[in-house]
């Protein structure tokens, strides 16, 4: 019997922008697939379901002007979202949890991501905390060599372990550095204080990670940041919401001043998509209970729509 890897969200709207729900990952017909991965590996028992676990459905529910967003002229894109083309976007739902086996969630997430990427669809992952890209990045194994990892975050995320857990939200970039299919790592937006100590910074630099702090990014601008990312792809883009400035994405656990503003974020997304193929992206670490008004969700939806619209126009799909 084939294990059911994902389930339909129980909220309304049930899918992102009410795109079709597609949970038959063995028969996936999609150019772009959205996947919720609610649960990372916790550092404490009380964090097994953290606030970030609610984010995939919260992002879906915030897509409130679907009839406009999917059909009307989008000035961020210079036309409608899918540019009037025959592009199939689906929402695969959320990776199914197993209350008696937390590791099963990552195993299913990796299997789901392998099927989606194997079907040649661009994967957009909604977290969850920053542990959830670990199984997604594992799933890229067969898809490319020398994938450039582009990481937006206030924090370095190079811890080997925290409380004995090696696959939690402080470790995704170190785990990626151990995967032979990743080459260059470019880290953008570091500032303030996180879980990294001098040793983690030394390790990242020894690997050759290009660490562009938030302050350097503000000084040199996004065009210069894009110039430091190798041309041609393939790329994987992981965005920790706390890398974005808390004035536009306040719904994070670690609010840190000085992050990417909206114009910089949009320029980075469009610039990267147009430099080469982005195999997938994730948006993680949104903690819905910290939102102010709906401002984080508005920017999250805009970010995802800009990524989709840019990919469509970069001729990714036939
Ligand atoms: Mn992070």
Short description:
With 318 residues, this protein is an alpha/beta fold. The protein has 10 helices and 9 strands.
Poorly predicted sequence stretches spanning 5 or more consecutive residues = none
Tell me the distance between the termini.
34 Å
Q: Which homologous superfamily in CATH is the superfamily?
A: Ureohydrolase domain
Write the CATH architecture name.
Answer: 3-Layer(aba) Sandwich
Would you kindly provide a written description of the structure presented here, covering whatever features stand out?
The protein has a nine-stranded mixed β-sheet, sandwiched between helices. Helix 9 runs parallel beside helix 10. It has one domain (6-313): Ureohydrolase domain (Arginase, Chain A). The protein contains ten helices and nine strands. By secondary structure, it is an alpha/beta fold. The site of manganese (II) ion has 7 residues, from loops. Manganese (II) ion binds at residues 130, 153, 155, 157, 169, 240, 285.
Keywords:
9-stranded mixed sheet; Arginase, Chain A; binds manganese (II) ion; 10 helices; single chain; 318 residues; alpha/beta
């Amino acid at each position: 019997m084939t294990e059911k890897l994902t389930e339909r969200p129980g909220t309304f709207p049930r899918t992102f922008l009410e795109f079709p729900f597609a949970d038959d990952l063995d028969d996936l017909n999609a150019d772009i697939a959205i996947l919720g991965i609610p649960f990372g590996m916790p550092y404490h028992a009380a964090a097994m379901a953290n606030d970030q676990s609610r984010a995939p459905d919260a992002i879906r529910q915030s897509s409130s002007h679907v009839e406009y967003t999917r059909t009307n002229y989008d000035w961020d894109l210079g036309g409608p979202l899918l540019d009037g083309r025959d592009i199939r976007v689906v929402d695969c739902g959320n990776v199914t949890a197993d209350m008696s086996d937390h590791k099963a969630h990552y195993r299913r997430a990796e299997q789901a991501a392998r099927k989606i990427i194997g079907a040649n669809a661009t994967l957009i992952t909604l977290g969850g905390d920053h542990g959830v890209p670990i199984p997604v990045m594992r799933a890229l194994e067969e898809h490319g060599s020398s994938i450039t990892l582009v990481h937006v975050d206030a924090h370095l995320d190079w811890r080997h372990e925290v409380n004995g857990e090696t696959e939690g939200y402080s470790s995704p970039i170190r785990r990626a550095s151990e995967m032979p299919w990743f080459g260059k790592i470019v880290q953008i937006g570091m500032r303030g204080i996180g879980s990294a100590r001098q040793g983690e910074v030394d390790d990242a630099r020894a690997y050759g990670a290009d660490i562009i702090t938030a302050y350097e990014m503000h000084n040199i601008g996004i065009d210069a940041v894009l110039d430091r990312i190798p041309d041609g792809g393939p790329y994987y883009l992981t965005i920790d919401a706390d890398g974005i400035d808390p004035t536009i994405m306040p719904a994070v656990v670690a609010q840190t001043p000085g992050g990417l503003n909206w114009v910089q974020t949009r320029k980075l997304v469009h610039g990267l998509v147009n430099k080469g193929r982005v195999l997938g992206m994730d948006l993680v670490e949104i903690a819905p209970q910290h939102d102010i008004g709906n401002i984080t969700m508005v920017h999250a939806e805009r970010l995802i729509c800009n990524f989709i619209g840019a990919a469509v126009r970069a001729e990714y799909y036939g």
